[in-house]
Write a structure and sequence with these properties.
alpha+beta; FAD/NAD(P)-binding domain; globular; 12 helices
Length: 395
């Protein structure tokens, strides 16, 4: 970037909801945006596939609300949490900031529509392109090396780079590896699994969360009469069962009484997806002078909250606004992004960290459900604490 030149080009790595929505917002603000995505869309993605009501406000801003609602997904009006014995508490979606229903839609559908919208508004989208290296000068990243499906490499330059590659944090990890001289270690505490099922007994319009020994899971109806099951389980359980997802479902997840009633006759209609989870909470928001992170690359919130998708859209909206204001002042940009990100997300991340203990312990889940079952005010306060304000312009 030349001194005195206002940055006008942005390269985003990752075409999920955070990356695509940021690309759309920046192009409409006059930036030249290139988006590189490792996969070819549509593709399945390990995710709870719960799109909270507040996300619909972002869909309006991004110009995709009607397309999303017409995709056949299920409108979700409540989430019900079940302890191992089947005791439950319900959280109506009307308690959230916008007061509307959530949407349960496969990531294959949602992500594809967002990426197509990005193309439509002028984003240069490069699918089947993986970031494998970068160039730098005076502490700034000058370009990334992208490898295509034919194994050919290409250098792509930009003024600002954004890592939206999710929990993989591809660009941030490459930068960390360069600075430390070794590959950062990943935690191995949890493994996530996801598959689509048919013949479940899940209640229409309901997302169900199950607590069981060593983890928790969620089930919600999606399009085409299917339901999405996604669960997190401790890695030692996975090792003991040789990674057999069907076996883990049958002997661990179905120990939850409600899960057994809902899933015992279910049939898989997709392959299992699995991924290791290396921790929750805040990550590095600015791993280099002109490199920033959003979505799960910036912070990973507990899936049981149902607010992960919301954080993806919120963080991309936040960064788009700050880039538009401070793009020629990178140090100020980084400072404003860190401060604004903390104001927006720090409290909910701390609260979720505390709630995680109950989510992974059947005994604690039982106590939590008993305490909150008869107190709807407390239940509402806890539910709202896991998400933010409705306004897209809130700092």
């Amino acid at each position: 970037m030349h001194v005195g030149k206002r940055p006008t080009s942005v390269l985003i790595a990752g075409g999920g909801p955070a990356g695509s929505s940021l690309a759309i917002r920046l192009v409409t603000r006059g930036f030249d945006v290139t988006l590189v995505e490792r996969e070819k869309f549509p593709r399945h993605k390990l995710c709870g596939e719960f799109i909270s009501p507040e996300c619909l406000l972002h869909f309006v801003e991004l110009g995709v609300r009607e397309q999303m609602l017409a995709s056949g997904g299920e409108r979700i009006t409540k989430t019900v949490f079940y302890d191992a014995a089947g005791r439950s508490i319900a959280v109506p979606c009307k308690w959230f900031a916008t007061g509307g229903a959530a949407l349960s839609l496969s990531r294959a559908e949602m992500d594809h529509k967002l990426l197509e919208r990005a193309r439509e508004v002028g984003v240069d989208v490069r699918e089947e392109a993986s970031v494998v290296g970068f160039g730098e000068e005076n502490g700034r990243v000058t370009d990334v090396r992208v490898r295509g499906g034919d194994n050919s490499d290409q250098k792509l330059s930009a003024d600002i780079f954004v890592d939206a590659t999710g929990r993989a944090s591809v660009l941030a990890r490459l930068l960390e590896k360069r600075s430390k001289g070794k590959t950062p270690k990943k935690g191995k505490g949890l493994v996530g699994f996801k598959a689509h099922l048919k013949n479940t007994n899940v209640e229409p319009g309901c997302c169900e969360i199950y607590s069981f020994h060593g983890g928790y899971g969620g089930l919600s109806p999606i399009e085409n009469g299917s339901a999405n099951l996604c669960f997190l389980v401790r890695s030692e359980i996975v090792r003991d069962m040789n990674g057999d997802a069907d076996g883990i479902m049958g002997s661990v997840v179905l120990k939850n009484t409600r899960a057994f009633a809902t899933l015992s006759q279910a049939e898989r209609v997709s392959d299992w997806l699995a991924v290791s989870v290396d921790g929750f909470g805040l990550k590095n928001l600015d791993p280099a002078v002109n490199v920033f992170t959003i979505g799960d690359s910036a912070a990973f919130i507990d899936p049981f909250t149902g607010s992960g998708m919301l954080m993806a859209f919120e963080s991309s909206e936040l960064l788009a606004r700050i880039i538009s204001t401070y793009s020629s002042e990178l140090k100020t940009l980084a400072m404003e992004y860190r401060l604004s990100f903390e104001r927006r997300f720090a409290t909910r991340l701390r609260i979720c960290s505390m709630l995680r203990r109950a989510a992974f312990s059947p005994a604690a889940a039982k106590v939590m459900i008993l305490l909150l079952k008869t107190n709807s005010v407390a239940r509402q306060l806890v539910a709202r604490s896991t998400r933010g304000r409705a306004s897209l312009d809130a700092g």
